[in-house]
Amino acid sequence: MAILKVAQMGHPVLRRVAEPVPVEVVRTPAFQAFVDDLLETMEAHDGAGLAAPQVHVSQRVVVLVLDPAVGPEVLVNPVIRPLTPSIARTLEGCLSVEGLRGVVERPAHVRVDALDRTGHPKAYELRGFPAVVVQHECDHLDGVLYVDRVEPRTLAFLDELARWGRLDDPSGERNARGPDMAPGVIPIPPDVGVLLGLEA
Ligand code: ZN
Prior knowledge:
Layout: H1 23-26, H2 29-44, E1 49-51, E2 61-65, E3 72-82, E4 87-94, E5 97-107, E6 109-115, E7 121-127, H3 129-141, E8 156-157, H4 158-164, H5 173-177, E9 193-199
The structure holds zinc ion.
C-alpha cells in the first residue's frame, strides 16, 4: 500500500473527464491494489472522500465515507440522479484546493448507482451530507471542482475562516467574536466540509 500524491487545482488531470472502468478490470489485482492506495491516501489526509483523478488517475473511481458505522466505500463508474428539488448548503473544501473553503448548494437527496470494488452493482439513496459528499466526489470524475459551483463571495482561506468565521453566517455571532477566536476553532474536514443546512 502507498500514500499517493494529491493533484492540486491547475493540474490538467483534475479537468479531464475520467474513463469508465470495465468490469473485468475491476477484478484485477492491479486495480484492487490501486483501490487500497486510494483508501489509504484518503485516510492519511483525513478526507471524507477522494476521487481517482485527484491522485492523477483518470478513471471513474471514488472512495468515500457515507456512514461512519460502515466505513470507507468504493464506487466504480457511479451515476447520480437527484431525487428532490430540496437543496443542501455546505461549506465545502477539497484536498485538491488546499486551504480554501466555500459554500456550495447541491440537491439534498440523490440516488447513486455504481459497481462496488468486486464489480457488483450497488445502489444508494442518500440524504444530507452523504448526498453532498458523493456529488462532490463524482464531480471530480467530470473534471468539475467545487470552486466552479461556489457562491463566490463565500470563498475564504481556512485560516481566515477560523479567525473571523463565515462572513455569510446569518447569526453574525462568529463574526462578532472577531480575531480573538483561536485558529482551528471551526473543525472543517477537507473533501468535503460541513453541512450548513437544508432548504425545501
Ligand atoms: Zn474534492
